[in-house]
Structure formats: structure tokens, C-alpha cells
User: Fold Sugar ABC transporter ATP-binding protein from Actinomadura rubrisoli.
Amino acid sequence: MGDQPLVTLKGITKSFGPVKSLNGVDLTLAPGEVLGLVGDNGAGKSTLMKVLAGALQHDGGQIAIDGRDVRFASPADARRERIGIVYQDLALCDTLDVASNLFLGREPRKGPFIDRRTMHRKAAETLSELHVRVKSTHQEIGQLSGGQRQAVAIARAVSFQPRVLILDEPTAALAVAEVRQVLRMIRDVAAQGVGVILITHRLQDLFEVCDRITVMYEGRSVEDEPVSALDIERLVAMITRSGSETAEEVA
Ligand SMILES: Nc1ncnc2c1ncn2[C@@H]1O[C@H](COP(=O)(O)OP(=O)(O)O)[C@@H](O)[C@H]1O
Ligand SMILES: [Mg+2]
Assistant:
């Protein structure tokens, strides 16, 4: 494998009827890397990540994992390649408890019954490995704070042992301490070799956790820079394409 990227997207296109949402996107991700994916509303970030997670099928272009061409017909296909995603609107079940949400659809069983004791023990282990604190794994999800819900959603994705973890706006609605918690989870997961793609409008977060940033604009990837080469002003200029060089390219 060597220098082979974990994920390579090349020339990805996707239309919804007359709307061309993705118009030739390139992106790479290395193991253990945290990649920030930014761009204005409607740039195509969520659509691109749904393609990578198998929730949408692209029209053209290639997806390669470890340099091997793949095509995902469903989220299950992407999960088999160990690609995990936490969507913007967390798909959690408010009326179930923390442990049930973590193991929804793959609860440990004893004969025909859900083995609740094992499920709660495993849930507590998973959460503690990720430094997520909840009062009890028996708490209903609907009673948790936004940050705790986000943490549980990430823990659920991590418990599938992904090699790629996609987080779409995980900190958008969170209080300051909760943001810290999510950023810490991202660093922990990446330190274990997982490639993380972080979509966020909170540009300051990118500078705390990302190694590299890819900028999308109107369905295309337009910039790709290591964070060390950027500051907030430059990044804002790249996102809005107001910088001098980028303005020339557009013309
Ligand atoms: N299911 C859909 N049907 C029609 N248009 C869509 C659909 N999903 C996304 N789009 C359009 O694709 C473009 C990119 O959207 P999106 O990927 O959500 O952007 P971002 O996440 O960067 O804000 C937008 O113009 C959006 O309206
Ligand atoms: Mg989006």
C-alpha cells in the first residue's frame, strides 16, 4: 500500500434532474488524516459525502479505496469497506436509551432475546474508550444535550470500526464545552489510524483538528492545502473565491 491514499475520489459528478450538484470533484484522504471539507451552502459537500457513504450513486467519476476501484450501490456496500458517516441530522431514536441507540439493528442476543446486560456493558465500554460521559446508558436519547447526542452518534459510527469516518457539521448546534468534546473525539479516532472527513462552517475548529483542507465551490473541488499553509482570512477568501489569484482563475 505504501503511499496509496485510503480514499481517492476522481472527477465525481452527480445531477438531480437539471441541477448539477457535483461537477467533477477530486479528493484524497490518507489513514489517520483529518481532512476539512469546506465550501458555501450548496457547494455540494453533503452530496459528495453521501456518494462516498453509498447513500447516493454518482453519475460519473471514480471512487477508489486503497487504490482499488469500488462502486457502492447502497450504504451497506460502503459499510463493508468500513466507511462510516454521521449525518447532519443525527439519525438517532429519541425514545430509545443510549445503549439501544449505539447497537440499533445489531443488539447482542441471548437466544431470541436482546441481551440487555451485555448491551449496556458494551455501550459503557465504548463510551468510556471515547471519553464520552453520560449519566447512564439507560438514559433516553431525547433527554440528552445536543453535545451528548452528537457524541453518541459518533460513538455509534466508531463502534462499526470504520477506516473512514465522515462527520457532516458535527458541531453546528453545540455549546463550547461540547464542541471541545467532539474535537477531542476526532483527534482520538484519527490517532488510531482512521481517516476523518470533517465538514464544518466553524472555521476555527478546522485549525484545531485538521491536517489538510479541501475547498468546494459550486460542485467542484477548487483548493487543497495543508492547514499549516493557511490562516482564517486566506481560507475565507478561498471559500468565497474572493482572493486575487482565484478570481483570475474564475474569469
Ligand atoms: N436530493 C436532492 N435533490 C435535488 N437537489 C439536491 C438534492 N440534494 C442536494 N441538492 C442540491 O445540490 C446542491 C448541493 O447541495 P449540498 O450537497 O447539500 O451542499 P452543501 O452540503 O455543500 O451545502 C444544492 O444546490 C442542493 O440544492
Ligand atoms: Mg451540507
About this structure: The first strand starts at residue 7 and ends at 16.
